[in-house]
């Protein structure tokens, strides 16, 4: 067994382990008005004064729409085996309903062909937060019809790409879509209605189930259908019963609200009890839980940092240190009596504590939660204040150490019996980081936003060596 606590000890992975990187459409594509694309909620949100840092938008982003061939060539040069990207719904189906725009689909066909020509496995995420604005105008995710529109969209994309793409993810981080979008308002569409956020969560679950069924109806049986959850590792501040109850409350809102129906066909009873003052859940119709509880071929886990919580006075007005942006409105419905605490340790530029033990804990939880279900780490990474040196290089040893620590945690989980089959670094390159604008750099590849020139950072070279050899280079070997 490798000694993953000692960076000097070789950490090797199974030969079939998949080494990838991930991005999302609105964060990198640009070309927001080309080839029939219409606004998504993120176009509207980012153009609303005060919603993003410096008023920055994804109008150009890193211009991947026009530079995708060069970007794929760079992936191949680095040695990546897989690339996870998302489809822009409003590029493919501009109003969120009706026939597809072929020029939009053609972009993704060309991208997939380019990846396959370079022996890079494409992994498609259907929804990474960019709902067509017309669907939001009709009510958005709190409305049931949005789930059925998603299923129609899933079928369109599945028919177009299912013959060449084998890895499919329905939703990315539905927690963010529901609770940052509709409760705290720090993400698009920027609404602050806690009851609506719970309705949104249910309809995102329904969209996942309907979308998974739609994909399977039009794709070869060999294709993998999964979902990516940003499940939280929620730790109580103490073993006091009140703190344990607070941790359970947040665990239900962060995790059980999605994995309950998706994996087990039921919401946690404790979630119903805790939120009874906001909703009676009458929008959960007969048959919904069966529709949501579709068999999965794999589960994607996104991990960045753990949460530390305790009981608190609901009237206290202390800052909410949950790492999910500044807002007077909480993304945790019916949990105003829960306090979040900064966990100890070094932090990334996002202010998130670096704790690889949380990733190991998360993997082992889902190994027990869904025995026999293969796992992929579909996002993991760190933002740092990267700069180009006088030698034209970008040295980011902190990110290398971060990756070594977290990949070692993945390997330790495999040793402990987890079926983890791949890892997608977030992110392939610097990009538009949502409400933070361009100020937070998560990329392994540096992007000069003035020229859009790409420069692989030290971490990109390090990760590329790991991908090619199946073993983690020493942290100093950069």
Automatic annotation (TrEMBL):
It holds the Pfam family Glyco_hydro_1. The active site is at 173 (proton donor), 379 (nucleophile). It catalyses: Hydrolysis of terminal, non-reducing beta-D-glucosyl residues with release of beta-D-glucose. PROSITE patterns: GLYCOSYL_HYDROL_F1_1, GLYCOSYL_HYDROL_F1_2. Substrate binds at residues 27, 128, 172, 304, 426, 433-434. It comes from the Bacteria. Its EC number is 3.2.1.21. GO terms for biological process: cellulose catabolic process. One of its GO terms (molecular function) is beta-glucosidase activity. One of its GO terms (cellular component) is cytosol. Keywords: Carbohydrate metabolism, Cellulose degradation, Glycosidase, Hydrolase, Polysaccharide degradation. Gene3D superfamilies: Glycosidases (3.20.20.80). PANTHER family: GLYCOSYL HYDROLASE, LP05116P. Belongs to the glycosyl hydrolase 1 family. This is Beta-glucosidase. It comes from Streptomyces cahuitamycinicus.
